[in-house]
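Quick check before the chapter quiz. The format below is the same one you will see on the exam, so make sure you can read both the input and the output lines.
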Amino acid sequence: TLAQAPISGSQQKKQLYPFTDIPLYSSLSSTTTTTTTVTSRATTSLSVPCPRVEDAEDSDSEKDASYSRGDSHDEDDSDSESNSETENESCSPRRRRSSGRKHQQKDDKTEDENQANEKSKSRSRSRSRSRSRSGSRPRRSSRHRRSTLMCHRCGSRSVSKANESPSGSYVDIESEMSLSRRYADSFYRRISLFKVRSTKLSKWPELNYTIQTDLLKTMDFNCFEYTEEELLHCTWYIFHDLNVLRAFSLHPSTMHNFFMCVRYGYRANPYHNFYHAFSVLQFTYTVLVRTGVMSMLGLLDILALLIGCLCHDIDHPGNTNMFEINTQSDLARAHNDQAVLENHHAYCTFEILRDPRCDFLSPGKCNLMPMQVRQVRKMIIQAVLASYMTHLFYMCRKLNSCQAECAGLDMTKEEDRQFLLNVITHTADISGQVYPTPIAKEWEGRVVDEFKCQADRETSLGLPVAPMMQNLGDGYTRFKNHVNFIDFVMSPLWTGVVELFPPLVPCLQQLHLNRQHFANVLLQQQQQQQQQQQQSQ
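Here is the expected output.
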């Protein structure tokens, strides 16, 4: 064995925190950041193209993109008809008459097709009757399937045809049990990368700009300055830089498809959108490379953490769990009013993995054993469910009992490792207020916009409006709620997080600076209200 020289304290700190030379915030440090720019053509980590199964045409690629974003074929047809109508209004009378003839011929064709469909249905019915008379068992279509009905009063069960309306107080059990399935089907159709009539993959977006890789490791990274296509490449770089793709031999094209499906799975909400998902992922990446978490967790834990952060709010409807429960939506009934949205996010994550072209955990596309795949699934689900706000107080209590540098956590235990993953996911989920003040203001405005939309919906439905969503048009009420959120939610959590990860002390300092900014704005709003009251008197 070779004798190793003793390691000094500065060298040991450099090994534990390799990015101490790069400041976490440029505004909180006097030194300038020396970032290295990496172009897409210079490095293979950012320019790995998505292998295409078939070469798609330009028109087909546009249709694939619209279909993957959730536009159904009916909407496309209606848009094309509306466009044709607008063109007909601006054209000559002769062209109007010709277009009217075309529409009339189209209507005649649809009527003929409907008549032909009715005739074919009547023929199939007569054939099924003849088969039943001859003794052979007829093939039942979805229209003639049988369902079990249960009475609310006596609990008796009966069997009737599904197309017949149930009499009395009978409820279709099959329809009740398939609520989650129908909801998942609508979600999967919206995020699917494939059309009904073809099996061509969408193209991985090209990267024609320079990524500042060192900026991704700081809190100065502003995701709003980039497009979603550019953030997809940043997502790929984060997975590549943490050595997750190479360690588990994850298939590149499958990972590309998974990332694109996740992107399309997020709705166009003011706050809970793909930008929020990437912000959570980027904050987690910063924590991993800035602190000693990389030495405490294994690569399997890091893979589950990254997937959980990226998909923690997928298919978020833009409202709270209480709204789903009060409206008795299909989603709330499917999950029995228990962490409705968090359960749905975890469900949609693995709904994407059901597609073989997106399932990077399937055999042949990774070197994981079946037991490891089950372990990854378990960790992802628990990390996503930990983003529920009810887990905040438990995390704060346990963090306060832990000493600095994770002395109170035993990383050999699965429970403590999972708790660490949950803390990072939950902290990253509400990390918008530890970014620089301009970015924090942007996240605050988006949250307020989303709360306003839910308050309007609750008012129109006659439902009670949550206190934190009432009167948000008033500046004083808006900023008072935000300051209270920082004082009673953010500060207790970050106090324990800083004790766990000392290199994140600048984040707590930035949180105090942002709190002071919003407190000053609150004071200005209060003074304006007092002046208006004096003028009215």
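If your answer matched, good. The chain has 22 helices and five strands.
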